[in-house]
Amino acid sequence: MSSHVTQEAVKTIMDTFIQRTQGSGEWDARAKKSLPGGDTRAASYYTPYPAYMVHGEGCYLYDYDENKYIDFLNNYTSLIHGHAHPGTVSAVQEQVARGSVLGSAAQVTVQHAEMLRSRVPSLESVRYCNSGTEATHLAMRAARAFAGKDVIVKMDGGYHGSHDYVQVNVQPDIETDGLPRRKLTSRGVPAAVLDGVRVVPFNDLDALKDVLRARSDEIAAIILEPVLGSSGGVQPEPGYLQGVRQLADTYEVLLIFDEILTFRLDIGGLQSVYGVTPDLTTIAKFIGGGLPLGAFGGRKEIMAPFDPTHPQTIAHNGTFNGNNITMAAGLATMEDFGVEEVARINTLGQRLKDGFNRAFQAGGMKARASGLGSIIRIHWSDGEIKTARDAVAAQEAAGALPKLLHMEMMNRDVFCASRCQFSISTPMTEREIDMAIDVFGQTLEVVRPYMTEQTPHLLRE
Length: 461
Ligand SMILES: Cc1ncc(COP(=O)(O)O)c(C=O)c1O
What we know:
Bound molecules: pyridoxal-5'-phosphate
Shape: globular
CATH topology of the largest domain: Aspartate Aminotransferase, domain 2
CATH superfamily of the largest domain: Type I PLP-dependent aspartate aminotransferase-like (Major domain)
CATH class of the largest domain: Alpha Beta
Distance between the termini: 22 Å
């Protein structure tokens, strides 16, 4: 039971938010008449309602009620240059004036592919679609076609978008001791999907080996993010990714790296950082310059059946695949995101992480900022976070704390993902980072009454 003190702390945060965003509240009431929940994307929802952002410029966002926020959401990491980046805006304007999608092959698509391939040597051949979801869907299809086998191994807590074949253990199994049980994450997904998917914990080579040894005659590929993103930013232990590569080779299954989130962390993605070469890679988010885009590619012989003249083609269509506006926006965005920019925002990310950790220390709190480069997450524990299960169990034990933190930071003009993920964009400077660190420290003090009563395990004696 929550006490009067907790209820007051929560109420003050919520009331402040509602007071500041009255216009958004009115739009939310109107939206709910047309849209279930008032919106059209689960990840952008938070209670009592999401603020309506109406304008973005650089690293700042403005809501309907004219509150100004530093934007650490960056549309879930996909806006590398923040909002209305001049190079991207002119590329889109020039292209839209010449036609948005011309229903034919386009030079700009070739140039985009050349740019991607120059950065990621394992992308011998690449195809485009309109989202990360489609990219993993098609990479898995390509892997099955090449291997002549159907089953895909994924990680407990691994997120690869919203198509049916990855709606298995997106929420890690935190109830079972030992190996995770396979479970569909969404209603409406056919139960038969479970037959085509096996699940193992991240950072557990023994579990992966056991599954491959028992079923390599059925398994086409392993798909994983080099760092588990939506399950809390869980990093690979030294040697883990190399071990996965070796096991894939030993048991003759393909390795797919989902670098949709992680591609921003190094010019060649995390595969270049860890020195592990997958057979296929999926990329999305910022490579579309803020417009919808997904890419998948890898070894030439695996990708070859996407050539319509191939004797055994793989189906791949899409009315807006490689549309000129998106490709032009993506190319312009990538041109302005070179080695120096990657390093600069990664350094800002480190500064943010260090500042948040100082705030946790100063507040006597047993939590820490984690993450790599320009993406920072909060781990609600000072213990080891080795698997998605560890990260999510810690998050669940933190109760409403992440939500309160998110909302109170909004009350203080800092916008991040409601799961407390912060991503850096190139218009940010040390000034914005230090402002966010100050706000974080102030926010921790506001939520302290909640912690004292509801999550005392997160406070030092
Ligand atoms: C690792 C990963 N894979 C796939 C996806 C799905 O991408 P999209 O939202 O573009 O469909 C995401 C999106 O956040 C992601 O982080």
